[in-house]
Please model this.
Amino acid sequence: MSELRLAGLEKCYGATVAVAGIDLEVREGEFMTLLGPSGCGKTTTLGLIAGFFPPSAGEIYLKGQPVAGLPPFKRDIGVVFQDYALFPHMSAGENVAFGLRMRNIQTGEIDQRVREALDLVQLSGLAERRPLELSGGQRQRVALARALVIRPAVLLLDEPLSNLDLKLREEMRVEIAGLQRRLGITTVFVTHDQPAEIYERPATRFVAEFIGRMNFFSEANRLIAIRPERARLSAEKTGDFARRGKVGQVLYLGATLEYHLTLDGGERALVEAPNDGNAPRFAAGDAAWFTASRESCYEMPAR
Ligand SMILES: Nc1ncnc2c1ncn2[C@@H]1O[C@H](COP(=O)(O)OP(=O)(O)OP(=O)(O)O)[C@@H](O)[C@H]1O
Ligand SMILES: [Mg+2]
Model:
């Protein structure tokens, strides 16, 4: 049985369609990532699941039961908001304790669980600080501790790492993934980071272009897609995929060189070549072959 299921979920604000009919199943213990451009409805979807506002149409099921009408604190869901939404007048520790107080947990247990949760996000010494006395990244971690401390069945994370520096972000990402596996919390994670699977194997042209640059070639009734860093320029016809063309603009970017080509058929193509001293150099106006190995070519539907 799925832990969380969305069926035809919609949310409209007047003429604005914020969520346009989502069908989604998340299995128990699964880590589901939602990725999409700004304004596509990610935060609204999480808000609907959490129960902050009602859908315009569709249903949400938790463990097979429809949750329409249930208030947020009766849904067994932990949320980390994009803007944290900490209570400004409460200390970090009190913020983390809030969900436990709402659930009438005993004081002794609350203190212990708050301590554990703050340890988990590496904020042990800062329990007494108020949000305004914390950095953006620290606030984000308080919000994470506040969501985890209630040990929810489903955890909703809305860009929870966006304000952390790179090192901490990577630590937290590993920490969250480990925690999620260890505790088996079903998780829906909204992110702008590029998941490798989608980058390496995009299913559609929209996805391929959303998270990087891509060359597209139509062939019969299929579409071949090749990432610029997986293509090569060569003086001769080599590789499994080869198209002849002419070098246009050449951009020197230090670690890489970017070659903009016009192929014989008039199509544009882009090659990102490593500046490693081995790759042959080309100049604007040179004739050259755009080549790629079979492993670097993805096939996808034309639309
Ligand atoms: N309360 C509201 N009233 C009117 N329109 C809204 C409201 N909340 C969201 N919207 C609109 O709904 C759409 C989806 O918003 P949402 O916040 O879900 O996007 P998002 O995918 O989370 O974007 P981002 O990546 O920028 O956080 C946007 O066009 C937004 O302007
Ligand atoms: Mg958002």
